[in-house]
Amino acid sequence: MTVVTLGAHIVDVLARPVEGIPAGQDTVVVDQVKVTAAGAAAGTAVSLARLGNRVVSLGAIGDDDLGTLLAALLTREGVDVSGLVRRTDEQTSASILPIRPDGGRPSFHVPGANLTFGAAMVDPGLLAAADAVHIGGPDVAFGLNDPAFFGALEAARAAGTVVTMDLLSNLPDLVAATAAFLPHVDHFLPNEEQALAMTGAADPVQAARELLDQGPSSVLVTLGEHGSLVASADGVERLPALPVEVVDTTGCGDAYCAGFITGLLHGRPLGEAARWGTAAAATVAQGLGTAAGLDGLDAALALLDA
């Protein structure tokens, strides 16, 4: 199956475990430092590729060393990067993530070229030819909020393409603006904080129902250690998280999206596809960074049997 991911592309530099920032010029020795392709589009692309999908990723990166590194990391995973636009006026988006012993991940972040990605950089024919399109981080790719892009999504959906979407930030003003995408999306996958910020709802179930009324056929809200919930016309189903030892939560949301999309493309019903997402996320939580430990679909699904 072919999936097009488009939106946020980020280079992550991760270190663990980090309990605090040292004073002055002190040095703290850590167990691991890792560089990964990340962001709601690029991170999902890597997980999708590791789950056996053909992936084309579209976005804007800088014409700099970080951009070259990011393209190389994606290419090594088998992701087609011919749709990445190199920008001379912006650096490649990047984050430094000091991972706490409990898996938490504060971030030092440069938005960079992601802010310049827009509808004019997307080939509508590529979307229509794909089995699925995943919009990752439209809250930071402002140029996608464009009638031309929405028209391309509608044409792709009419051709049979499944359209999914998740967000990058938790900033209320940014996530609120993504409501314009919801009538053009089949499945929306925010986390709890994003869902509450978009709706002002008191709890994630109410938030999912309100988001469902805005157009998607399903809304899947990830709840961290509490699993996720799946809302559709058939009602709301809660799915527990799998009991694994958490090393780092970076990339878990991307892996959930990738597992869910893979399940849909394998013809699985909504709830089962969401469980595929749960398994992929649980696999990644046990390692450091994007798609950590994700070594094929069968290995991820074995967690469900266990």
TrEMBL record:
Superkingdom field: Bacteria
UniProt entry tagged with the keyword Kinase: yes
GO MF, one example: kinase activity
Carbohydrate kinase PfkB domain ranges (all copies): 4-293
InterPro entries tied to this protein: PfkB_dom (IPR011611), Ribo/fructo_kinase (IPR002139), Ribokinase-like (IPR029056)
Pfam families cross-referenced by the UniProt entry: PfkB
Keywords noted in UniProt: Kinase, Transferase
UniProt protein name: Carbohydrate kinase family protein
Species in which this protein is naturally found: Actinomadura parmotrematis
